[in-house]
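Technical annex, item 7. During the second reporting period the consortium partners agreed on a shared format for inverse folding records so that results from different sites could be compared directly. Each record opens with the tokenized structure and is followed by the designed sequence. A conforming record, contributed by the partner at site C, is shown below for reference.
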């Protein structure tokens, strides 16, 4: 592994300038963006993801980012490419664009960073003259959910999430359908291929239904 995710789920999910139902086409940097390949990690819009950065090439990446806009793509490594450290792992074509919201540089040069998920993006790899890899971000066009269907889906998503989370969550009443689907996806212990399919689904309604199907297929453990 190239980094250790300290935590994946953070709630309340930050909504600082992010509307997960409509923002995917808005937060797309024009210039190349570093990609941080991580096995089994997905960065959802609005999520706050803490990461421990210790490899020299990714220390260089963070140092470069702190001198610029601070945008970073978390690329989920394909499952078949995780095993060998001497290969360049392929990442999924739909990824999470994040912004460094906070950082801490340790005395030995390592970093703790906190990424705020800005949007899903489609990525294409580019040549890089740095130690780390670069990608071009393209908009991830989402299909909005109809009002009545969205209302029904939000009720189901809230109930499913409540059944899986031990602590009491205060979820705002106006939380969008897409964000609720993302939250449920994070708390369902589903295999990576299942999460990949949900994460890359452009239809918000279909994404919500797939998250609910995963909830039904992989029941929560007894409390």
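Designed sequence (site C submission):
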């Amino acid at each position: 592994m190239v980094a250790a995710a300290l935590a994946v789920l953070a709630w309340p999910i930050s909504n600082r300038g992010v509307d997960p139902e409509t923002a995917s086409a808005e937060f797309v940097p024009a210039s190349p963006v570093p990609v941080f390949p991580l096995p089994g990690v997905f960065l959802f819009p609005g999520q706050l993801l803490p990461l421990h950065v210790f490899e020299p090439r990714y220390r260089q990446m963070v140092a470069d980012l702190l001198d610029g806009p601070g945008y970073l793509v978390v690329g989920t490594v394909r499952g078949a490419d995780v095993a060998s450290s001497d290969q360049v792992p392929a990442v999924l074509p739909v990824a999470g664009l994040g912004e460094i919201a906070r950082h801490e540089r340790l005395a030995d040069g390592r970093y703790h960073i906190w990424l705020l998920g800005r949007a899903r993006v489609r990525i294409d790899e580019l040549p890089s003259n740095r130690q780390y890899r670069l990608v071009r971000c393209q908009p991830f066009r989402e299909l909005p959910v109809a009002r009545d269907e969205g209302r029904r889906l939000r009720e189901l998503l809230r109930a499913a999430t409540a059944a899986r989370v031990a602590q009491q969550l205060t979820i705002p009443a106006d939380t969008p359908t897409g964000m609720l689907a993302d939250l449920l996806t994070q708390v369902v212990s589903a295999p990576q291929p299942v999460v990949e399919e949900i994460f890359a689904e452009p239809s918000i309604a279909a994404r919500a239904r797939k998250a609910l199907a995963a909830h039904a297929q992989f029941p929560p453990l007894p409390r």
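The chain has two domains: 3-139, 147-217. The beta strands are 3-5, 33-39, 48-53, 71-77, 94-105, 111-126, 133-139. All partners now use this format for quarterly exchanges.
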